[in-house]
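S.,

Sequence below, as promised.
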Amino acid sequence: TKWLINEVQPAAMAAFGSPVVEMVAFGSYNCRRRNNARSGRLSEHAFANAVDVRGFKLANGQETNVLKGWRGSAAEQAFWRDVAYGACTTFTTVLGPGSADRQHENHLHLDFARHSTQRQIHVCRPKVPQDWVAMARRNSGQQTAAFGGSIEEPLRGEDDE
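The prediction came back faster than expected:
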């Protein structure tokens, strides 16, 4: 809820002038291993601790999705980057287009995996640019970046979801 209120809705208003009324997801619970592999660690989806967000429907009837929007119009690109980068303030793992693998080109994988005992490490792919400021904050004159947590590169294979 925090992410939807603090990141998604302001990004939708700034990019499209309309609020989000529905999140379109591929799913949350799916008892499987990471990347649907035959062996290896269980996915956070196996614990109902993850969701794969495909897109959003807006009050004005417009729809936007990761697959087309990430490389779409300037407004859609800004929206999806703000949504993805902003997710790193709430979730401990965010995987999307531009991740090391090609499996997240059509959705954002969001989860609360424990990467450290204090939950201070956030795995964010694509990586949040150091100078990122959400479009809604730029438009309102607030120039403080929203992300203040630590981002560490995961160990090999750690970001495979």
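The chain has a mean pLDDT of 78.

Coffee later?
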